[in-house]
Amino acid sequence: MNYHIVTLGCQMNKSDSERVANVIEEMGFTWTDNEEEANLLGVLACSVRQKSIDKVYSKINKWNKLKNRQHLITFVSGCVLPADKDNFLKSFDLVFQMSDLPEFPDMIRQYGVVSPFSQQIQNTKQNVIPVQKKKFHPKPEIDLSQIKLNPIGISRQVTMVSRPEEKIKDFWHVQPAYQSKFEAFVPIQNGCDKFCTFCAVPYTRGREISRPSEEILDEIKTLINKDYKSITLLGQNVNSYGLDKKGNEIRFPELLKQIGEFGKASGKDFWVYFTSPHPRDMSDDVLKVISQYDCLAKQIHLPIQSGDDKVLIKMNRKHTLEDYRKIIHSIRKILPSATIFTDIIVGFTGESDEQFENTRKAMEEFKFNMAYIAKYSPRPGAASSRWTDEIPNPIKTERLHILTGELVKHTLVYNQNLVDKTLKVLVTGQDRKEGYLSAISEGRIVLRFESENTDLIGKFVRVKIHSATHYSLEGALAKEKVVENVES
Amino acid sequence: MKAKDIAKKNQVGKNSILKEKSIVSLDSLSLTMDTVYKIHSVRNLTDTTYILRFDRNNMQFEAGQHITLGVQGDNQTREYSIYSTEKDPFLEVLIKEVDHGMVSKRLKKLSKGDVLNVDGPFGFFTIGSFPAPGKKYLFIATGTGIAPFHSIAGSHNSLDYRILHGVRYSEEAYEKEFFPNNRYILCTSRDSTGDFTGRVTDYVRKNPVDSDTLVYLCGNCDMIYEVYDVLISQGLRSDKIRTEVYF
């Protein structure tokens, strides 16, 4: 039996999908690229933009037509607003919160589906899940084979863990099926307490809950021992890590320090990134720790969203342009080689020409290496959706183009300064250009170099840069043994 | 997991292995143990404004923070600043009924013993987030934006503050007797029964703010923008201004 998952949205969803995939595979399903061959089709939804929600509806409409000719269950999870959830229930067979993932096999069985996994349970006649017992934490009193035999309506036997903290802990115990053999995402928290007015995450993922640091460190150590080269710590506000535990958990700088110490002791070569931090919680302590360890990558993704104080007030960002400026100065001082990425929204409700101009000036001042610029679109559920979205789309598009123009002025200069330098890079795959491999620098600048040696994929090499464009570099393999990074 | 989330639908095709079309009931799958917040009282202040008092359940919060609130069993919630003080054994929120509002109207219909969906506390609009011992504070609110200042003033007895409350009519000066007379200034824009006739913006223009003052603004975004501009024009630095936008 086959499954297929469509993952929309951010890296957090991609990370979640790795855990979903593992749970499904443990049930006996096999991945297929072809939706029409699947018996289990799911989508991990994103609620950041309406466009993403529209994609979910587009998928389910297509999938429901497939039901006329194949055995099929559909499900949706991920970032789903309460209002959307009600609508999805009309189209999908299963709708569940990501924190309920450990119960997903139970849901499938209660649905009355004979899967390889449920047959296995019936054959064993045991009252516990024989596979992934530790990961799924089934209640020992539940006779899953009985549930399977009485698919619907006897589900009182299932006792769900009730508190969000407990549920998300169980979710984190689920082993992910990493999609890459050298790059991995490691969630360190779930949810958000910041309530930015444009964002629905507090309503889709709930409040901030930090994952126990022991688990994070264990997962990282496992990955490093398997020679993973790039690890990204994920969370909606990674640098507020631990604050929800009120003294009973280490804070983000200490977490980074412990990762750094492990990296140093391991003798392994790898880079650790994190995304996204919130300016309000960004401290010099974080930057100083990064400066002390080679394995903590010198790349900071710090969303600014707007360069205008009044727009920031309306966005409920809880920082001013001056606050942001101080952080950038600290980064430049403490981590002079670091690249800086950001997120920006243009055309936020009520954004005037003057306010937009302040954002453009901020881009000019901060000289970002990358900016993910989005046109504002209101999402039902987010607070800003109650305000009129009065900026016409052509103006939003124009502002996006202006900021993109501002961005590439600086990226080109930065990238051209790397010409003739030799960079340590991680080879990520074959490039679209035949005979070339793609790679990424420590600062996450993409590049390519001529080589057909696919054995290099997933390894660090040195590349001498000979040309630069706005967004990428091109170079030649210096030699396959890696040496000191000279990106700055 | 909510059982209705695993509801089965009737669009299953004729060859589907899915035979059942029933919906699993919510209660059968999810036995929640979350804290129960029961309503103590609904206190009407005007035709459209009321105070909900309900269980605190030992929730630890800082005055100025907010919670999310909804009717139990309903998936819609809204954020409301906590109106009660850190010392009170209960929680209170001040709510203005919104035309076509999905939550405020439903909350108003609740009565003693009904259960609320509560989460929090959240937010940084507190004195502790920006400690400034010995400093003067100016709190400026419009309408129900008075709520966090009610909590702050009642929780920090020694605070050197004044509060400007902007409303249309003096009956919207919700429980103003809570504040000492020498600290509370009522600005009424549609009648002349307040301490000042006009909007809070007018008051601030006529009474420039000392540059050492920490100013907290809470209310609708238009008011916050206008007062912000006036304060900046009077020489106040932006880091002296804290805001909480109501929407």
Could you please describe the fold and organization of this structure?
- The complex is a heterodimer of chains A (488) and B (247).
- Chain A is α/β, with parallel strands linked by helices and 488 residues long.
- Chain A folds into three domains: 163 residues, 3-Layer(aba) Sandwich (Rossmann fold), CATH 3.40.50; 248 residues, tm_1862 like domain (pyruvate-formate lyase- activating enzyme), CATH 3.80.30.20; 58 residues, OB fold (Dihydrolipoamide Acetyltransferase, E2P) (Beta Barrel), CATH 2.40.50.
- Helices cover 36% and strands 19% of the residues of chain A.
- Chain A contains 16 helices and 18 strands.
- In chain A, the strands form five sheets. Chain A has a five-stranded parallel beta sheet with strand order 2-1-3-4-5, with helices on both faces.
- In chain A, strand 17 and strand 18 form a beta hairpin.
- The termini of chain A are far apart.
- The C terminus of chain A is likely disordered.
- Chain B is α/β, with parallel strands linked by helices and 247 residues long.
- Chain B has two domains: 86 residues, Beta Barrel (Elongation Factor Tu (Ef-tu), domain 3), CATH 2.40.30.10; 111 residues, Rossmann fold (3-Layer(aba) Sandwich), CATH 3.40.50.
- Chain B is 15% helix and 30% strand.
- In chain B, a hairpin with a 4-residue loop joins strand 1 and strand 2.
- The longest helix of chain B has 13 residues.
- The radius of gyration of chain B is 22 Å and the shape is globular.
- The N terminus of chain B is likely disordered.
- The chains are: A alpha/beta (488), B alpha/beta (247).
- The interface between A and B is large, with 61 and 46 residues.
Strand order of the largest sheet of chain A: 2-1-3-4-5
CATH superfamily of the largest domain in chain A: tm_1862 like domain
Structural class of chain A: alpha/beta
Main sheet summary of chain A: 5 strands, parallel
Strand composition percent of chain B = 25-35%
Note the total helix count of chain A: 16
The CATH architecture of the largest domain in chain A: Alpha-Beta Horseshoe
CATH superfamily of the largest domain in chain B: Nucleotide-binding domain of ferredoxin-NADP reductase (FNR) module
Q: Which runs of chain A of at least 5 residues are low in confidence (pLDDT < 50)?
A: 114-162, 482-486
Strand order of the biggest β-sheet of chain B? 4-3-6-1-2-5
Tell me the name of the CATH class of the largest domain in chain A.
Answer: Alpha Beta
Q: Calculate the mean pLDDT score of chain B and round it.
A: 85
* Radius of gyration of chain B, taken over Cα atoms and rounded to an integer in Å: 22 Å
Fold-level CATH name of the largest domain in chain A:
pyruvate-formate lyase- activating enzyme
Helices and strands of chain B, in order, run as HEEEEEHEEHEEEHEHE
> Class of the largest domain in chain B in CATH?
Alpha Beta
Secondary structure category of chain B: alpha/beta
Measured distance between first and last alpha carbons of chain B: 31 Å
Please compute the radius of gyration of chain A using only Cα atoms.
24 Å
Total DSSP E strands of chain A: 18
